[in-house]
Amino acid sequence: MSRLLDQNVIAPKPQDYITPPFPSLYWPFPLAGDQAYFLYNASDIWRFTLFWTLIPYAAMHLSASGYAVVIQLRNWKVIWLAPFVFAVIGGVEAFMAGSCVGGLLAAVYNAGHFRMSTWVPFVWGLINSLILILSSFAIQGAL
């Protein structure tokens, strides 16, 4: 997948660039020196966005499955499947949302030859999670 994303992209990355390890979140207000981490490769942007989408999705789906287990504890023969089903559905949703957003972010940032802060995938992972929460409510009006 990484060769596919990086194949035709010319990234203005430094010669000694090394991809930062996964979270690599830094304090955004520089108080002491330059401690910022940036992403240049499309595959890294996609991967960071996917991971930052998977984490909140997993937390939300597992908390919802925990609530379902507590509420439906009297059906103990069937309810043990709820965490597994919720985890699989949440993983598929997170993979789809993270891949779409990560691919778009990678395309936009690499097309403009921009460097991406490691905070951008984190924020987009939270935005994906908020969209998931908003889409869980019934809409009374017609779209």
Concise overview:
The chain has 143 residues and is mostly helical.
Commentary on this structure:
60% of the residues lie in helices and 3% in strands. It is built from five helices and two strands, in the order H-E-H-H-H-E-H. Strands 1-2 form a two-stranded antiparallel ribbon. The mean pLDDT is 83.
Q: Could you give the order of the helices and strands?
A: HEHHHEH
Number of strands: 2
Radius of gyration: 19 Å
Share of residues in strands: under 5%
The outline comes out as elongated
Distance between termini? 36 Å
The percent range for helix content is 55-70%
Flag low-confidence runs. none
Q: By helix and strand content, what is the structural category? A: mainly alpha
Biggest β-sheet: count, sense, barrel?
2 strands, antiparallel
Total helical segments? 5
Mean pLDDT: 83
Spatial strand order of the main sheet: 1-2
Keywords:
143 residues, mainly alpha, two-stranded antiparallel ribbon, 3% strand, elongated
List the helices and strands and how they pair.
Layout: H1 2-6, E1 38-39, H2 42-71, H3 76-79, H4 82-111, E2 116-117, H5 119-135
Antiparallel strand pairs: 1-2
Helix pairs in contact: 2-4, 2-5, 4-5
